Amino acid sequence: MSLSRVSNGFFFALWVAVCSAAPEFIWQGMLSVFGHFTLRDAAAALLIGLILAFFVEPLIERLRALSLTPAHASKSPAFAACTAIGFAVAAVCVHEAITVSIAANHTNEQAAVNLTNALSQALEWAATPFAITVAWLSARARPWIAWSVALVAAFVAVVSGIVFEWGMLVIVTSALPGILILVAGMFAVRGSWDHHTFRRCARVTAVTALAWLVVTGVLQAGLSLAHVQRFEIYDLSEYWIDFRFYLGWVVGLVVAPDFVGAPRTRASSDAWRGRR
Prior knowledge:
Blueprint: H1 3-35, H2 39-65, H3 77-103, H4 111-137, H5 143-163, H6 168-191, H7 197-225, H8 236-255, H9 269-275
């Protein structure tokens, strides 16, 4: 296996893992940001958004294309400006939310402790998707290798909860759907290997997670209606935390650069034959 393939696989898995952790940071940060939102914050976001929209983003776009021609030349200046400002202000708000979430508060007291806690939380969220993605990348190796890596990924899904001192119920409700997603993805990858493979894995992850959340949600609702308090599958906060986690996981599989790559075709071959 080439070094290039190993490095690409590592960064693909890392991409998916970071996306899995990101929604919770954004959500917690948004709660803090809008809990202390002032007109000064709005003015600062708008000013930074204007700079990003009118200077930074167009410059990066031209440099990326190595051309002075805009990528969407058909847009009117007003439409392009409004669209760019909207996305830029949203990006500023998301950036502020993540910063506040990691800093834990606006005053940023005990910054080192807060950063350590944030890194620990990121590892909690990212470990299982990273291990499962690595298992999927190994799925087309010899069966004993593929399923050995899959067992390691399942082990990570269980041990992560023990290492980070989750409760037993949280470990079960995290590890069980993770293992189901792992196994379903293994069969999806072993079935076919093309540039749509990880889109199929995204579908598998979404369907499995949705089925899990619906079933457990219905069961929990039934327990609540029956006033059974001695046993609880989910409390409401943990339920929505898992929802955000699976959402980030699916988004990561969708937006990560294509690991397999689309097949190259000779687009000009027919035209060449026609000129003969």
